[in-house]
Amino acid sequence: MSSPKPTIVWFRKDLRLADNPALAAAVRAGGPVIPVFIWAPDEAGDWAPGAASKWWLHRALEVLDGQFKERGGRLVLRKGESLAELRDMLEKSGAVRVVWNRRYEGPLREVDASIKRALREDGIEVESFNAGLLNEPQAVGTGSGRPYKVFTPYWKKARERKAEDPVEVDLDRLAFPDRYPRTVGLDALGLLPEKQWYRKFYPHWEIGEASAKKNLDAFLRDGVEDYADERDRPDHAGTSRLSPYLHWGHIGPRQVMAALRERHGLRAKGPLTFAQELYWREFAYHVLYHFPDTPEQPLQEKYADFPWKNDRRILRQWERGMTGYPIVDAGMRQLYETGWMHNRVRMIVSSLLVKQLLQSWVHGERWFWDTLVDADLASNTLGWQWSGGCGADAAPYFRIFNPMTQGKKFDPEGDYVRKWVPELADLPTKYVHEPWEAPDGVLEAAGVRLGDDYPKPLIDHQAGRKRALAAFEEVKG
To answer: How many domains does the chain have?
Structure first.
């Protein structure tokens, strides 16, 4: 009797072995498993991974390959058009089956659908699975079957559905072929630039499935009970920092939710608030799936003609963390140094850009896309349209954050600002969030010369607020 034929497992944003339904299906098929990753950035349209994401992906592929090597296999790497590469590997390996876990971004959904059709026409068995969400985007809808545009009713409806348990993968039965299709070296994918700016990221991140589990365990042990109160404090380590691990699939939301329920349940305020954040991520995918144009176009169409005052100089100052607002500059510098920014600060920096400075949310979205290691199209789009007042469940445009008030409330001792804006480190706490209010003698003692050592605000807060409200009057309907 002939041996079972190989199965190709096509990895994308599911870079783990546990709770991986595509890998589980390949193992159940009984034949050798050929794990592959294809670098095909053009297929993502305008939203190929940005620079920080590519750094993370390079290391993630290295770690995943190591996991397979520990079990006697390897990860096959290819670069090119996905369908052509899959067909070549099918021909060279004798595989008769391709499995993968689904992607939900518009261009990538279309790519996957066309590949599935083409391979089935070739006589290849193809199957896809959900590995990245608690509920697939089309599974939750209003009573009339329409998509939700507001989070609270979505959350109430979605949480009624029992979250699936993590998928068991029988890794003891995982077998590999004697011969593999051709592979390229990791460096051939060209994920890392010649200028090694990414070296600054290494002290801040451990990448891979084991690191994701380690972070989750630490958070559930030490952080989740106080999460509701601590999550808004950038000066404290009060968040899970799981976002890049979830984005790249080093851990799945089913694993996170199962561990949360098992260890804490969802009755206490901290665990329940954390569960809501998981469902906010789900909501982002729900919105992107049903409104695939939102990465470029506002969900609320009236904002398409908003009178932005786009200014490259202003954008550059914001990107560099030189706006003159300390809490904003701290966040932008944390982002550039680590590839990540605290979520409360993300809201503050985006409010300043879009409202007081009247720069389009699309510019901020693009900058985050290039500089975040957790740059997720669904979450990034939802967050920026929320800040811009033009998307699903958006903050009203007339809700304008006061960066000084936000800084004093959520970084009360100024520790976060002092860490990331060291030129203000010696200012008294009273003035660290508004150094322009400090007397000349206090500034001199702290070694701060406004406009020289540290910039004056790009715009007065009240003047910016007044200008933003006037702009809003032009479009509100």
So the answer is: 3
* End position of a domain, from candidates 86, 114, 130: 130
Q: pLDDT tens across 54-85, in order?
A: 999 999 999 999 999 999 999 999 999 999 99
Could you tell me the pTM of the whole model? 0.96
Query: Which residue has 């904002």 as its token pair?
Result: 303
The one-letter amino acid at 318: W
* Contact assessment for residue 238 and residue 280, using Cβ atoms and an 8 Å cutoff: no
By C-alpha distance, which of 243, 216, 211 is closest to 63?
211
Nearest to 366 by CA among 27, 48, 13: 48
Nearest to 453, CA basis, from 437, 441, 433, 435: 435
Which residues are marked as active site?
A: 277, 280, 308, 343, 361, 384
- Both tokens of 409, joined, read 């409330």
Same domain (yes/no): 261, 152:
yes
Number of neighbours of residue 192 by Cβ within 10 angstroms: 17
34 with 67, same domain: the answer is yes
Query: Is 276 within a domain?
Result: yes
Taking every pair of Cα atoms in the chain, the longest distance, rounded to a whole number of angstroms, is: 90
Question: Which of left, alpha, beta for 230 (phi over 0: left; psi -120 to 50: alpha)?
Answer: alpha
Which residues, 6 or more positions from 379, have their beta carbon under 8 angstroms from its beta carbon? 243, 247, 281, 284
Nearest of 171, 182, 173, 83 to residue 126 by alpha carbon:
83
- Give residue 123's region: left, alpha or beta (phi > 0; psi -120 to 50): left
| Residue 230 CA, distance from chain mean position | 21
Return the structure tokens found at 465: 């607020």
User: Is 370 a domain residue?
Assistant: yes
